Amino acid sequence: MSCIVSKYIFRKLLISFISISPIAILMVWLAMSMRFVELIITDDISFSVFFTLIVSIIPDIAGTILPVCFLISSIMVLAKMQGEKELVVLMTAGKSDSELFRPLLLFAILITSLCIYIQTTVSPIAHKNMATLQDQIRTSLSTSIIKQGKFNLAGSSVVYVSQKKENSISDVFIFNNGVNGITNTITAKSGIIEYSDKKLFLNLKDGNRLELDHTNAVVSSLNFKEFIYDVSEIFSRFAKFGESESNYTQQELLQKIKDTTDVRWKNIYNTEYHSRYLQPFTILINMLIIALFMFNFSKNPRRIQGAFCSFVFGIANQVILLGLLRSSIKDPIFINFAVIYIIVASLVLYARIVR
Fold it and tell me: In sequence order, which residues have a C-beta less than 8 Å from that of residue 99 and are 6 or more positions away?
């Protein structure tokens, strides 16, 4: 009988989770995919390349969204069972809270394991594939991304090319707001578009550079025969995703932590490594939160209280753990605090449940 009840609850949890997760992932995926639409509209890449690019972000979305889906789907199932008096009937039949709690525990362990696998294995591979694909797109667009007869935005610079044939350009105008109150205006008779080491440059010929320092109203003018200007920021609309510490596997992150001398990057790699293991544990804590509130309120006709408390404390739990992990970028000791938080929160919640 106990096995039958556990299977029944577990099946309801699984069906609810499978129903909610694809919809939530799809909504976030569509929203994030919009950043790449310009590649089709402006840069004429093929739909197959565009589709491959946006598919690569799904594992990253899933690893973030699934803990929330677990929280919502579990609350919905138990709230419905309360509303239909199923939990009361099972308790009246002699089932203890711990027996009803068991399928929720098994389901939480399953989803936690799935998230850890996605975060540590699938997501880094997807990020690597995206970074490789983006590099291929940059290479293919290196000569075509700058349009003739149009103002091309490249970060703080605006580039205008009157004539363009393959990688040769003529009658070039560049305006740059610059930094520290300095504005640059560059004109050139001709030039060549060059792509090297993932960067895009304009090799300008026979031109003039006009520099205005707004702090003291001084204007400087320089004629040049050749001038190299970096316009790599023109790739920024699709280069932000997939080019980070997320590209590395766990083994590669460990090696990066060992080899990197820069303290900031060492902390970033260290945070990324531990976050992939620790962040999914929000699911187990949320499971204990749900069990505490939903089962405690199972005999209370106002089941909304249990559902509301479970959701609020579940979201708060995720925010706290995520905040601790993000803070470890500045100070690695926060990783220890995150581990302590997971252990203490789990023990306190478990003690309240079995009390």
Answer: 2, 5, 6
Q: Is 302 exposed, middle or buried (0-12, 13-18, 19+ CB in 10 A)?
A: exposed
Render pLDDT for 170-227 as a digit per residue (tens, 0 to 9): 999 999 887 667 888 889 999 998 888 778 888 999 999 888 887 777 788 889 999 9
Structure tokens at 36: 């790449």
Distances 48 to 39, 51, 191 between C-alpha atoms, Å? 12, 5, 33
**Helix/strand/coil percentages in the chain, nearest 5:** 65, 20, 15
Cα distance between residue 235 and residue 225, in whole Å:
27
Q: How many CA atoms within 13 Å lie on the side-chain side of 353? A: 25
Which candidate, 152, 321, 154, 17, places its Cα nearest to that of 162?
152
Alpha-carbon separation of residue 293 from 9, 87, 205, 312 (angstroms): 17, 13, 72, 11
Amino acid at 195: Y
Please, are residues 72 and 39 in contact by the beta-carbon 8 Å criterion? no
Question: Taking the alpha carbons of 70, 72, 74, 77 in that order, is the dihedral positive or negative?
Answer: negative
Instruction: For residue range 138-152, list pLDDT tens digits in order.
Output: 777 666 778 888 888
**Could you identify the residue written with the tokens 């509301």?**
308
Instruction: Show me where the domains of the chain are located.
Output: 2-140+244-354, 151-234
> DSSP string of 40-52?
HHTT---HHHHHH
For residue 290, give the H/E element and its range.
Answer: helix 282-296
Helix, strand counts (H, E) of the chain: 13, 6
Phi then psi for residue 150, to 5 deg, are -135, 155
- pTM of the full structure: 0.78
